[in-house]
Amino acid sequence: MRRIAFALISAAPLLLAQAPPLTLPEASPRAQVRQKVGLTEIDVTYNRPAVKGRPVWGGLVPYGKVWRAGANENTVVAFSSPVRVGATTLPAGRYGLHMVPTATTWTVIFSSQSHGWGSYSYDPKEDVAKVQVTPVATEPTERLAYTFDDPTDAGVTLSLRWERLRVPIPLAVDTPQVVVQSLRDQLRGVQQFFPAGWSAAAAWCLAHDVNLDEALVWADRSLALRPTFAGLTVKAALLEKKGDAKGAAALREKALASATEGEVNQQGYLLLSQNKLDEAIALFQRNVKDHPDSWNAYDSLAEAYALKGDKAQAAANYRRALDRVNQADQRARIEGELARLK
């Protein structure tokens, strides 16, 4: 027993030297925030120091010196697609985020080096974008935080918030071009074998008025696989956009010849969204003629007349819809529409 005890005591320094570190709370815990702009994902990974009653700006964070914009490792901003910062477009990738605070304007720096420890190894030769921003006063924030403010399909403001200051960094995204490139990539995959993928891609371009020449090629690819109502109507709309009204009309008539009630109804609502009320009414009237027992056909026609301001026709068709519908929730809705028309 004495020999065993002596062996354990002799080995104690070696055991201590090899002991793994304990997991304990960090003084500046790691955090991550994410925002999607269109199809573009923007991530910020950073550490969150606390104020703890200390003077921050011009004190804990000196003015005029490069700062890591967080604590510990680099603050890292990652983009899944190209993003514009000021006058510079940054390719998709990961970037180290640094800042140079002053009492007035700040310099925000995006560096190609994203694996550093803080700003100690910062090298201005690795700068890929710089932008001047003006901090604004805001509500107290004990732990440094990044937020995404006012997101739209075209961009978002990334804000650093700490103490009583918010540092706004505008980020812009060319979402239409990002989506177009994504569509090109998707149509290289299994979607290329189905007409719906090609026509849906063409329809997106049409709705956003971008990439129309290629959209017309995609519509033709859809029709080559199988003529469908969606493919014919989107090509018709593209031809109309390019000034070929005669070709567009011929394709629409071909599409309607084999369209289902739901497809005609969908096309009618598309026309309503474009404020083409008379054309929509003509389609809904066609649906009523072809499907006289459908409450939905009369309901859609009534809605179109109501949007045009023809209350008499709207009420007459709502009553016809009411005579044919069985669902309690739809009956209650149509009765409400009739009451509003009085």
Report on the architecture of this protein.
This protein is α+β, with helices and mostly antiparallel strands and about 350 residues long. Among the domains are: about 140 residues, no CATH class; about 80 residues, Alpha Horseshoe (Serine Threonine Protein Phosphatase 5, Tetratricopeptide repeat). About 45% of the residues lie in helices and about 25% in strands. The protein contains 11 helices and 10 strands. The strands form 3 sheets. The chain has a 6-stranded antiparallel beta sheet, with no helix packed on it. The chain has a two-stranded antiparallel ribbon with strand order 4-5. It has a two-stranded antiparallel sheet with strand order 9-10. Strand 1 and strand 2 form a beta hairpin. Helix 7 runs antiparallel to helix 8 and helix 8 runs antiparallel to helix 9. The longest helix is centred in the N-terminal third of the chain and has 17 residues. The protein is elongated, with a radius of gyration of 31 Å. It starts with a helix and ends with a helix.
